[in-house]
From TrEMBL:
<dbReference type="InterPro" id="IPR014284">
    <property type="entry name" value="RNA_pol_sigma-70_dom"/>
</dbReference>
<keyword id="KW-0731">Sigma factor</keyword>
<dbReference type="GO" id="GO:0003677">
    <property type="term" value="F:DNA binding"/>
</dbReference>
<keyword id="KW-0238">DNA-binding</keyword>
<dbReference type="InterPro" id="IPR036388">
    <property type="entry name" value="WH-like_DNA-bd_sf"/>
</dbReference>
<dbReference type="InterPro" id="IPR013325">
    <property type="entry name" value="RNA_pol_sigma_r2"/>
</dbReference>
<dbReference type="Pfam" id="PF04542">
    <property type="entry name" value="Sigma70_r2"/>
</dbReference>
<feature type="domain" description="RNA polymerase sigma factor 70 region 4 type 2">
    <location>
        <begin position="128"/>
        <end position="177"/>
    </location>
</feature>
<keyword id="KW-0805">Transcription regulation</keyword>
<protein>
    <submittedName>
        <fullName>Sigma-70 family RNA polymerase sigma factor</fullName>
    </submittedName>
</protein>
<dbReference type="InterPro" id="IPR013324">
    <property type="entry name" value="RNA_pol_sigma_r3/r4-like"/>
</dbReference>
<dbReference type="InterPro" id="IPR007627">
    <property type="entry name" value="RNA_pol_sigma70_r2"/>
</dbReference>
<dbReference type="InterPro" id="IPR013249">
    <property type="entry name" value="RNA_pol_sigma70_r4_t2"/>
</dbReference>
<feature type="domain" description="RNA polymerase sigma-70 region 2">
    <location>
        <begin position="15"/>
        <end position="78"/>
    </location>
</feature>
<keyword id="KW-0804">Transcription</keyword>
<dbReference type="Pfam" id="PF08281">
    <property type="entry name" value="Sigma70_r4_2"/>
</dbReference>
<comment type="similarity">
    <text>Belongs to the sigma-70 factor family. ECF subfamily.</text>
</comment>
Length: 189
């Protein structure tokens, strides 16, 4: 590129010329106004520090966007790193006497009732087993071989002397009957 075609930097005009564009670019990727403003500010600061390395091959705006993209990537790397996660604060009260925040990794987890889940899973399994046991013999056998014991289609067809299309018709019908049984006995509760 000849010297007369090279671009130059005008840092005194960056805020006026590019801040809105850079902010709009950032906010669509970060979705947090304050963080987007900070990243644009960091971009300008980094650009000032790197100005001596600017070769003028790209326009000023293109060069700033390249720096901004790296800042956005750095932002996501930070929040996805263990250290970054520890630094993210979660507000639990915005104002008043109880104003405060938690570090994200130390936010109290929701209390869940494991015993209740276990009972519900046991009941669900019981209803499902009952529905499977009420399938016609051939449907139950094919369904169990394919979906419970994970036999290959070819193995089941050879064992039961049926075609692959017959197998899939049986599985489709078995699933349809299971769905109806589960709707009647579990979801209708």
């Amino acid at each position: 590129m000849s010297d007369e075609n090279k671009h130059s930097l005008e840092p005194n005009n960056w805020v006026k010329e590019y801040s809105d564009y850079l902010y709009n670019y950032t906010i669509t990727r970060i979705d947090n106004h304050e963080q987007a403003k900070d990243i644009v500010q960091e971009t300008f600061f980094s650009a000032l520090k790197a100005a001596k390395n600017y070769r003028g091959q790209a326009s000023e705006r293109t060069w700033l966007i390249a720096i901004l993209k790296r800042k956005i990537i750095d932002h996501y790397r930070k929040i996805n790193s263990r250290k970054g996660k520890a630094e993210i604060k979660v507000n639990f009260h915005e104002d008043g006497d109880k104003k405060g925040s938690w570090l994200e990794e130390r936010v109290p987890q929701l209390w869940d009732n494991e015993a209740e889940k276990q009972i519900e899973n046991t009941e669900l399994k019981s209803v499902l087993d009952n529905c499977i046991n009420n399938l016609p013999d051939k449907y139950r056998l094919v369904f169990n071989l394919k979906n419970v014991e994970h036999y290959e289609t070819e193995e089941i067809c050879n064992e039961l002397d049926i075609t692959a299309s017959n197998l899939w018709v049986i599985i489709h019908r078995a699933r349809h009957q299971l769905r109806k049984c589960m709707e009647d006995n579990w979801f209708a509760k």
